[in-house]
Amino acid sequence: MWLTQLLERNRQCYPERTALVDEQRAVSWSELADRTLELAHGLTELGIERGDRVAVLSKDRVEVLESYFALARLGALFVPLNHSLAVPEVADIIERVGAVAVLGESELLDRHPELPASVRIRVALDKPVFEALGTVAAQGALPAVADTDPVAVLHTSATTGRAKGVTVDSASFRAIALGWLVLARPTDDIVMVNCCPLYHGSMVVSLTYMAAGATVVLMPGFTPQRALAAVERHRATHMWMVPQMLRFMLQAKGADRTDLSTLREILYGAAPMPLDVYDEAVRRLGCGFRQVYGMTEVGGPFVTLGPDEHPAPGDVTARIPCGRVVPGMSARAVDPAGGERPRGEIGEIVVRGPGVMRGYWNDPEATREIDLDGWIRTGDLGFVDEAGRIHLVDRTKDVIIRAGQNVYPSEIERALMSHPAVRDVAVVGMPDEDYGEVPLAYVVAEPDTGAVELLGHVSQLLAPYKRPRRVQFVEQVPRNPAGKIIKKLLRA
């Protein structure tokens, strides 16, 4: 089984090298392999069996990944939970997957004193009871687990509706990791600061680099100061973040006084990279950049644009392309009937390959809806250029149809972001009696910036039918922890 083999291989190759480190502790590959096996036995002694679902409610810490590896070893499915969800949302996910246990930080567990009836085991990761698991248990035989057995239920980010449970197996993790590493060509001295949470598909990036023997640095939550300190303290070579995190890091006090000279590559994804942020980051950091385009339903990151393919600052006038699909996976742009679009023509991006999910947990109808003759619909509009690179244009659900003409919110957002006073923006459609739907722009801007000024700015960049009907100033654009705009809140 892939996750177990990953640990065994790295223990053999790099026994004393640090595998994981957080703000409390560090573990070597040898220690991680031993603890994972020990913990798998301990969880079995608690009554967790093969096929059981176990929810994990925690901020990023070493014990989270220890739990994932241990549960996979005994054939149970780990179900990461977004710790920022409200009590009813957490209960809904636990009930839908029928979780028999919840492992989590005591502070977070205390917020959920009453859990669905299926839960019969609660264990705090930061208490001695977790540390003691397996240390005195009888070391009986663990079940044989195949790569094709389900290993996790990962939930979507739910930017447009209710989160769906994506069922994946170890074969998915393996396919994505091997394909990704062929293109990324990692060296054996990588130290990666992971700024993204371990409770959704972005965690596959960490697992992928762990497969290559990298050291992964975990933080309990992102702050610019914490990220900067982690790079300096651990002499990090790589960072994994969303573009908004990079913007905040560049703006942080003390950024210029932090030693970031060890950085070789910043991986970014989940949202488009603003060109002003990219230009400033290249100038100030002097490292390479790697774009990550992924989706939980297709196994995580399946497209990348490497440092050698990124444009020089100032050479980009539109969005940076996502890159090429990783070996083993296939992607193309299709029309509504499923026919492949010619190069350069916009269609929905669909994906197939060994990394794709087994389906949505107990939701065959939603699984059928996302399937197109064996291809997974991403919901992203884009095209494939002559060099085989995928370019994203917008989300299919976000397209505004104004009097029969397609208006892409991302194009308006880019135009507004090019104004020096604009800090963040989100565009959604609003009903209109004459045109059916027109663009409405929510903007975070410097004080004393006026709507007339911004509308005048975009009038020089966009055709009349693309221009926002109205600009509404807000203090903050709602985003989830992955940096994606939560447009359902704006539409509401």
UniProtKB/TrEMBL annotation:
Please give one Gene Ontology molecular function term for this protein.
CoA-ligase activity
Q: Name one Pfam family in it.
A: AMP-binding
Q: Does the keyword Ligase apply?
A: yes
- Keywords tagged on the record: Ligase
Q: Which residues form the AMP-binding enzyme C-terminal domain?
A: 411-484
Q: Which residues form the AMP-dependent synthetase/ligase domain?
A: 8-361
Q: Which SUPFAM superfamilies match?
A: Acetyl-CoA synthetase-like
Known InterPro entries for this protein? AMP-bd_C (IPR025110), AMP-bd_C_sf (IPR045851), AMP-dep_synth/lig_dom (IPR000873), ANL_N_sf (IPR042099)
**Stated name of the protein:** 2-succinylbenzoate--CoA ligase
Task: Please name the source species.
Answer: Streptomyces yokosukanensis
